[in-house]
Amino acid sequence: MLYLGFCGLTSIEPGKFFRGLWFFVYWVYNGFLIFYLLDSESALVTDSLISRPLLTVLLLLYPLIDTLRAFLIRAYNNKSPFVADRVHLHHRLADKGYQHWQASVLTFSLSTFILVVNVLLFSTIGLLGGVALTVVLLTVFYYTFFK
User: Fold this and answer.
1) Nearest 5°: phi and psi at 18?
2) Please, are residues 129 and 121 in contact by the beta-carbon 8 Å criterion?
3) H or E element, residue 94
4) What does the CA dihedral 68, 37, 23, 141 come to, rounded to 10 degrees?
5) In a structure prediction context, what are the per-residue pLDDT tens digits for the chain, which is 147 residues long?
6) What do you get for the CA distance between the two ends of the chain, in Å?
7) pTM over 0.85
8) Residue from 132, 112, 111, 129 nearest 121 by CA
9) Taking the CA atoms of the chain, what radius of gyration do you get in angstroms?
10) Distance of alpha carbon 98 from its chain centroid, rounded?
C-alpha cells in the first residue's frame, strides 16, 4: 500500500522506482509496528503464544540478517558498507536462475515458515529454544537455497 503511494513521488521515469526510498518506508512502517508490539499496555492475540521481543525479531529477521550479512562481507573486503553490489541474498537467488517474483516469494515463505514454527513451538521449547531453532533453520535454509 505504501509502495503505491510513493511511486508517484519517486518516479524518475515512468515505470521506474527508486528502491532506496522504499527501503526507508519499509523500516519506518516496521518501526511503528515494533513500537506497537513492544507496548506493554496493548493486548495482542499472540501474547499467550510467543514473547513479543522474539516475535518482533522474527518479523524483521530476513532484512536484519541480509543487511548484517552484506555489511560484514563488504567490511571483510575493505569496501564501504553502503556501496551498491550484488551480495544481498536475493541477488544470489537471481544468479541461481530465480526470477524476481520467485526470489521474493521464496524469502517471504521461508520467513513465514520460521515465524509459524516458532509460534507453534514456543510454549514447548521456550525463548532459548526458539532462538536456537531459528538459528538452525536459518543455517539449513542458507545452505539449501542460497549457497
Assistant:
1) -80, 105
2) yes
3) helix 89-95
4) 50
5) 444 444 444 444 545 444 555 555 666 666 666 666 666 666 655 566 677 777 777 877 888 888 888 889 999 999 988 888 888 888 888 889 988 888 888 888 888 888 888 888 888 888 888 889 888 998 998 898 888
6) 33
7) no
8) 129
9) 17
10) 18
